[in-house]
Amino acid sequence: MRASIASGVLAVGILLCTLVVADEKVVSTSIAPDFAALDDKAASDAANKLIADRRTLEQNLTTQLDAVKTPDNRKVLLIYTLGKLRSRWAVASLIKVIDFKAPFMDPKFDVARWGSHPAVDALAGIGDPAVIGIVDTLSTEKDDARVRLMVMVIYRVEGAKPGQARLETALAKAHDDTAKQNLQNALSAYRELAVKFDK
């Protein structure tokens, strides 16, 4: 009887919405349970389902971000959402669009939810997983503007000295000349940024 009640609670207790995307439209929401009302098995199953649902949500949002046909005014909201979710899944996609410029600055809010480059804000919010992805990317990145945005993320997450140490470590471990040169350029850009903001 208790298992039956628990299953019912699991089916109807609404606390957290998870998007289910079909044909690029939200068609339904799934539900987070009241854990206190569940037996051990149902609570464990519910926890696993929430984690799986979150993973599916992040994958769906990232797929939409990656889609060429997604308009810029929707892309900025996808970037913002993935940053607020601190989505590790989306790090590679967010790095790809790090130089994407926001088409609008969200005038409905007194404090803007994102800056001119929303992926910088999103990656900084994700934190260390984003830094790891950026350091890996910097070994092959040659675009100076993108490099400056990437080192900005590292600076915002790590701070001046730890961020510099992170890049110095990556440079010391680099094996090929191209990676060394790219990382040296990134380190120079980082030092310039640190001097500017640490004044």
SSE arrangement:
Layout: H1 2-12, E1 18-22, E2 25-30, H2 40-66, H3 72-84, H4 91-96, H5 118-126, H6 128-138, H7 144-158, H8 160-173, H9 177-197
Antiparallel strand pairs: 1-2
Tags for this model:
mainly alpha; 64% helix; globular; disordered N terminus; 199 residues; 2 domains; two-stranded antiparallel sheet
Describe the structure in your own words:
- This protein is mainly alpha-helical.
- It folds into 2 domains: 1-61, no CATH class; 69-199, no CATH class.
- The protein is built from 9 helices and 2 strands.
- The protein has helices at residues 2-12, 40-66, 72-84, 91-96, 118-126, 128-138, 144-158, 160-173, 177-197; strands spanning 18-22, 25-30.
- A two-stranded antiparallel ribbon has the order 1-2.
- Strand 1 and strand 2 (25-30) form a beta hairpin.
- Helix 6 (128-138) packs antiparallel against helix 7, helix 7 crosses helix 8 (160-173) and helix 7 (144-158) crosses helix 9 (177-197).
- The radius of gyration is 21 Å and the shape is globular.
- The model is unreliable at 1-30 (pLDDT under 50).
